[in-house]
Amino acid sequence: MEQKLIDAVVEQLGCEDSCDDDCLEILRDVLNHGADQGVSGFIYYSETHDFYARYQRLIVDHLQDEAESMGMANALELAQSFRCMQNADQLDIAKALVTIDSTAQISNCLAWYALESVAYYVIEVLMENAA
User: Fold this and answer.
1) Domain edges within the chain
2) What confidence tens digit (pLDDT) does each residue in 42-53 have?
């Protein structure tokens, strides 16, 4: 996972560092309960859409890497599997992956994906390796 994506999520959460106690608590909550629980910085469509628009390339690159590691054909296949994409049109999802033009639902879902991916990486990978 790119440090830039971790830093972007941490900044959006309003944290100073991914390893400070408050940030770790937020990330643990996200890991245990998901992004849809209402996480500061990732609640309103305006927040998530702006976040996705700013960091789209990092998010899509991570999505593609994760899709490949899971044996999927591409990022679109993985994105379509997200619960928050169940009512999204496949063409709209594909469009959002290659341009910043996306519906609020899709950009929200992809911003949540970034948040949940960072939560997993920081808590399960970085903290586990630090122990």
Assistant:
1) 3-130
2) 999 999 999 999
